[in-house]
């Protein structure tokens, strides 16, 4: 009843082309943002921050990044873990080399460095297409992880080969290091995610995004109508890697605090983020959030039920989780190739007509 | 000749042998890709699953013992008898065939006419599912697989070569067996696809789906057939790799090693898979031997990919692949 365009008159082009054209959607969006910024930080505790909220926010950034490349520009990448590692190590090197610079600038710079690396590994995409490219991005994944493992300069010659985030303050409050309050971690990631999601949403509906989508739908046809594949593909790689690099930097510095590259940024991470965007929906910002939320919550939920309630062994629960994730991927690809986002869209369409569907 | 040259030669030979092992996995990929255009990421996990099942049957393990024990609070693990290797291999082959039927019925049938990339991602899902399923069914601990294949250094070759050149070559017997098995497998597959009725149908489907359908070839039957052959190739690869390094999760990662082999050889060519495997195997062992010490070692993790990547930039269809023609 509330979900209607009727009566909501647009009097300017700006109003007509806004992200949420329906009033109910707009209000819902403001409420969600208000709760995320104004309510959750006061209620959050260490368990919820570390198990659910912070990983969700960081994976959402990575998922938006991969969605730009795979969902919008059609270039499948299995190198996400490697690019996250670039972000993490760039952030670490910057944090230790320039301790006086504000931490946010380190994170942003880590993003730009990753963007550069991403463009470099994106160059073959001009010649190689489809899953040939997917396999080619594996070269980035394995090479980068190997590089950070083998070259001691990257981990400042530490004996364990790990990198550990030093403590950094923002406005007098710790955001990295052991003494960080849960709400500070949450809020710091949320602000970055909010800014990046807003940017992504507006990029993808502008001319840049339309160029990416033209390349995705058919690259030769796009070239004929005047889209330059070189700039379109490489800009997608750059923007995508920028997001993924920031996600990697936050994953290392804010979320984990200390990482070992093979463990934290292995091939499994690449698949995890890819699954997020498949389940959430390729080519949609909302889908990136939905997929990240789904795949962060699922293991927590399964662990609580199988291990907490039934008392099963953790390894058995982990195997069943693998089965469920694999099964869900197949299920989504068969039943709803456009993911959770499509279910959401269908629900909204139904809601517009409800309760009089004719 | 100096010692190091012989040593380099030995490294090269062992690389060739390792390449044959990669090619065994790559073969399964090529078969499925040719017949259905599906890039089957799950091939490595198929090999893992086949090897797990084989060990489980040979050791007389109770399937799902872990799960049953967790639900009912019982604690049994084995039936208490052992199954001879040959019988176990036959049972495993039957299970792989059954798996092919299930995959066709519950996954492929619903994904006809989807884009290749969607099918690729579906096989990643299948890989995850099978990995979890195999672990739940047989447990995830490291198992040793022994079907009676010869192992260890081949002393005859070592003594012969040390008589001839004054340097004893070290070659694993298992690698020689693997090379023979791979040769037999390729010969059998070639004979099957050239001279049997099903084989001809298979080639027809590979050539043109719609034309094959129109002359009355059942696509679904061919897919089941191809996936069962791929399952049996996976079983052979699983036996070889399992005998070499034990059966555990890392076995499924050989699929990742087979990918550059395929890119190099071309996705549609069986000889390409063999030649690609040999090049990659030899290349990565030689690179590790010559350049590895300079950069800290463990270059085998990525060398194959970078080699394939560089190669693809110049020849996107691979060595023996069909030329890629694109139309608007």
Structural write-up:
The complex is a heterodimer of chains A (358) and B (328). Helix content of chain A is 72%, strand content 3%. Chain A is mainly α. Chain A has a domain of 237 residues. Chain A has a two-stranded antiparallel sheet. A two-stranded antiparallel ribbon of chain A has the order 2-3. In chain A, a hairpin with a 2-residue loop joins strand 2 and strand 3. In chain A, helix 13 packs across helix 15. Chain A is globular. Chain B has one domain: Orthogonal Bundle (ABC transporter involved in vitamin B12 uptake, BtuC), CATH 1.10.3470. In chain B, 70% of the residues lie in helices and 0% in strands. Chain B contains 14 helices and no strands. The longest helix of chain B is centred in the first third of the chain and has 34 residues.
SSE arrangement:
The complex is a heterodimer of chains A (358) and B (328).
Chain A: H1 13-16, H2 23-43, H3 46-72, H4 80-97, H5 103-122, H6 130-150, E1 163-164, E2 168-170, E3 173-176, H7 182-204, H8 207-217, H9 219-224, H10 229-256, E4 258-259, H11 261-264, H12 267-280, H13 285-309, H14 314-335, H15 339-353
Antiparallel strand pairs in A: 1-4, 2-3
Chain B: H1 3-36, H2 43-58, H3 65-72, H4 85-106, H5 116-138, H6 155-165, H7 173-195, H8 197-207, H9 209-214, H10 219-245, H11 254-265, H12 270-290, H13 292-295, H14 303-314
Helix pairs in contact in B: 1-7, 1-8, 1-10, 1-11, 1-12, 2-4, 2-5, 2-10, 4-10, 7-8, 7-10, 11-12, 11-14
Which regions of chain B have little confidence, pLDDT < 50, spanning 5+ residues? none
Class from helix and strand fractions of chain B: mainly alpha
Radius of gyration over C-alpha positions of chain A, nearest whole angstrom: 21 Å
By CATH reckoning, the class of chain B would read Mainly Alpha
Gap between N and C termini of chain A: 14 Å
Number of strands of chain A: 4
Spatial shape of chain A: globular
Strand content of chain A: under 5%
Distance N to C terminus of chain B? 59 Å
How many helices of chain A? The count is: 15
Proper CATH architecture of chain B: Orthogonal Bundle
Indicate how many domains the architecture of chain B comprises: 1
Which class best fits the helix and strand makeup of chain A?
mainly alpha
**Main sheet: strand order of chain A:** 1-4
Question: Which sequence of SSEs, written as H and E, runs from N to C of chain B?
Answer: HHHHHHHHHHHHHH
Mind describing the biggest β-sheet of chain A? 2 strands, antiparallel
- The helix content of chain A is over 70%
What summary fits the major beta sheet of chain B?
Answer: none
Give the count of helical stretches of chain B.
14
